[in-house]
């Protein structure tokens, strides 16, 4: 029996049958248990489509079998920061586009591997398969797509794509920023031996756009991103929360094609506005800002408010306003305009501010709170194009007028001209909100022999260019009141008239003066 078996095996046909049975039994079981192990196959010839007559495979049995590299799993004690479920997360996967430099690796086929610059259209011209568009795909998606293309020609192809050099980040910043528009942000390398690439963030983009304005709503900044070939995604970034707590609940890194929109605030909190102005992503405080002051100020008009030192606003200061420094605030602009007039209502100042959307914001300011309680938030930081309105008070309190005259809201000095029957007539520099009686005393008082002590004339130049003259009854014993002791304004003229006796004397003197002159001539000629 055994001899019969040996004879069967020794026959060519019997040997082929036995080897075939072994090949089907054992190799298939080995591949099923370890599918990652593959024989090293060198492809010498390809399909008839490429112009090759036959396709043969040569198996190199002298080299050990290689396995497909897999990612090493390592244990770590650190935990990844989990995204906040209460905040909508935006897709942060990097998608390929024109300008990226990638490496396409075909495992065990180096002649098909290489580095490529992705053109604007996104098509890669690969060996054997031709043009493959990877525009808007992640590296994993692009690898899967190229694997499908090569599966027609290669047996079980393994494709990997590595991003060698990302393209520059082109973004658009709109809304309440100093300079809205398109920007190109460069990528920066990190530290260490393998620095990699650091992508710019929302905050760096706002800084590049020269910061957000005072009209911005920093709690609802929008980051818009179009993911590949899908719809646009929008996430809301709360910069105020980041500024106050330092907690970043979203990935703020940017991708090519992102849009940042800063909306306009519906209401303005003065305290928040001041804190916003001191942040790194706010407008530069050293940049000059053009504002207009109208109403009850000494010199209404347009002023360039900038950081630095100024004496009363310019080199031609004649009001003695103190030198001031710091950010471009309301108080600084007021000092440039020479201060308020005695009729100003400091409790109801309004700031009209134009927004980037074309609308107008109105901010109410109470400088009386600043003077009495030290509320520094009332000293609003101005924005380019602001219009500040100082209304006229309906009623002037004597105590408030006296207090305002000693503050930095008012000019340190004003000029009035006292003429007529006073002991020292001329231009007098007095403190603002000085009443008529004090101006008369500054001129030395009435000329006892000639002045009319009952009434004086007050001549005033009005803001509209007209001139008014009125008669004021003088009562030295009265306090400040509009009838007998009004508050004087800058460039007022006080005329002290002659008394009745002085007028008669001057008339008689004017009549007899010619005779006295003739008599003097005769005396000189005839000696009598």
How would you explain this protein's 3D organization?
A five-stranded mixed sheet has the order 11-10-14-12-13, covered by helices on one side. The protein has a five-stranded mixed sheet with strand order 16-15-21-19-20, with helices on one face. The chain is α+β, with helices and mostly antiparallel strands. A hairpin with a 5-residue loop joins β15 and β16. Helices cover 23% and strands 25% of the residues. The chain is rod-shaped and about 145 Å long. The chain has four domains: 65 residues, wza like fold (2-Layer Sandwich); 109 residues, Outer membrane lipoprotein wza domain like (Outer membrane lipoprotein wza fold like), CATH 3.10.560.10; 116 residues, Outer membrane lipoprotein wza fold like (Roll); 90 residues, Outer membrane lipoprotein wza domain like (Outer membrane lipoprotein wza fold like, Roll).
Which secondary structure elements does this structure contain, and how are they paired or packed?
Layout: H1 2-10, H2 12-33, E1 37-38, E2 41-43, E3 57-59, E4 66-67, E5 101-106, E6 114-117, E7 123-126, E8 130-133, H3 139-150, E9 159-165, E10 169-175, E11 181-185, H4 202-208, E12 221-226, E13 232-237, H5 239-245, E14 259-262, H6 270-277, E15 289-295, E16 301-305, E17 310-311, E18 323-324, H7 330-336, E19 349-354, E20 360-365, H8 367-373, E21 387-390, H9 398-405, E22 414-420, E23 426-430, H10 436-442, E24 451-461, E25 467-473, E26 493-498, H11 500-526
CATH architecture of the largest domain: Roll
The residue ranges in which pLDDT falls below 50 over 5 or more consecutive positions are 1-9, 15-81, 309-325
List the domain count as a whole number: 4
CATH class of the largest domain: Alpha Beta
Assigned CATH superfamily of the largest domain: Outer membrane lipoprotein wza domain like
Span between N and C termini? Answer: 193 Å
Helix percentage range: 10-25%
Shape: rod-shaped
Q: How many helix segments?
A: 11
Sheet with the most strands: spatial strand order: 11-10-14-12-13
| CATH fold category name of the largest domain | Outer membrane lipoprotein wza fold like
């Amino acid at each position: 029996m055994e001899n019969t078996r040996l004879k069967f095996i020794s026959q060519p046909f019997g040997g082929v049958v036995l080897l075939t049975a072994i090949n089907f039994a054992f190799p298939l079981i080995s591949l099923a248990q370890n599918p990652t192990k593959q024989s090293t196959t060198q492809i010498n010839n390809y399909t008839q489509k490429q112009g090759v007559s036959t396709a043969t495979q040569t198996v190199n049995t002298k080299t050990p079998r290689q396995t497909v590299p897999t990612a090493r799993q390592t244990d770590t004690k650190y935990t990844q920061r989990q995204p906040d479920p209460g905040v909508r997360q935006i897709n942060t996967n990097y998608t390929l586009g024109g300008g990226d430099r990638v490496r396409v690796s075909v495992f065990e086929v180096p002649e098909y591997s290489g580095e490529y610059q992705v053109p604007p259209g996104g098509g890669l011209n690969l060996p054997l398969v031709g043009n493959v568009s990877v525009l808007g795909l992640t590296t994993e998606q692009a690898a899967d797509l190229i694997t499908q293309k090569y599966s027609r020609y290669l047996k079980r192809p393994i494709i990997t794509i590595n991003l060698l050099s990302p393209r520059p980040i082109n973004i658009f910043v709109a809304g309440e920023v100093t300079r809205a528009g398109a920007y190109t942000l460069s990528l920066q390398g990190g530290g260490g031996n393998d620095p990699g690439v650091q992508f710019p963030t929302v905050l760096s983009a706002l800084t590049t756009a020269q910061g957000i304005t005072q009209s911005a709503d920093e709690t609802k900044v929008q980051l818009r991103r179009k993911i590949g070939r899908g719809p646009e995604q929008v996430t809301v970034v709360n910069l105020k929360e980041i500024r106050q707590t330092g907690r970043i609940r979203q990935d703020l890194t940017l991708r090519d094609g992102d849009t940042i929109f800063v909306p306009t605030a519906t209401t303005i909190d003065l305290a928040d506005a001041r804190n916003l102005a001191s942040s790194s992503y706010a407008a530069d405080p050293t940049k000059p800002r053009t504002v207009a002051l109208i109403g009850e100020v000494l010199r209404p008009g347009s002023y360039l408010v900038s950081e630095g030192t100024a004496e009363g606003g310019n080199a031609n200061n004649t009001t003695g306003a103190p030198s001031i420094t710091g950010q471009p605030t309301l108080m600084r602009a007021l000092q440039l305009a020479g201060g308020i007039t005695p009729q100003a209502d400091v409790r109801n100042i309004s700031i009209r501010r134009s927004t980037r959307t074309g609308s107008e914001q109105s901010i109410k300011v109470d400088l009386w709170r600043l003077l009495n309680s030290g509320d520094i938030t009332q000293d609003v930081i101005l924005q380019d194009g602001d219009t500040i309105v100082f209304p006229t008070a309906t009623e002037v309190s004597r105590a408030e007028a006296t207090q305002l005259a000693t503050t930095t809201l008012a000019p340190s000095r004003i000029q009035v001209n006292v003429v007529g029957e006073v002991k020292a007539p001329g231009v007098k520099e007095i403190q603002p909100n000085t009443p008529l009686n004090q101006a008369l005393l500054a001129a030395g008082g009435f000329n006892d022999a000639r002045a009319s002590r009952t009434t004086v004339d007050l001549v005033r130049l009005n803001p509209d260019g007209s001139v008014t003259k009125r008669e004021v009854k003088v009562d030295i014993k009265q306090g400040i009141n509009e009838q007998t002791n009004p508050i004087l304004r800058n460039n007022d003229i006080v005329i002290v008239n002659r008394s009745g006796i002085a007028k008669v004397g001057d008339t008689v003197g004017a009549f007899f003066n010619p005779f006295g002159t003739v008599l003097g001539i005769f005396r000189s000629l005839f000696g009598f």
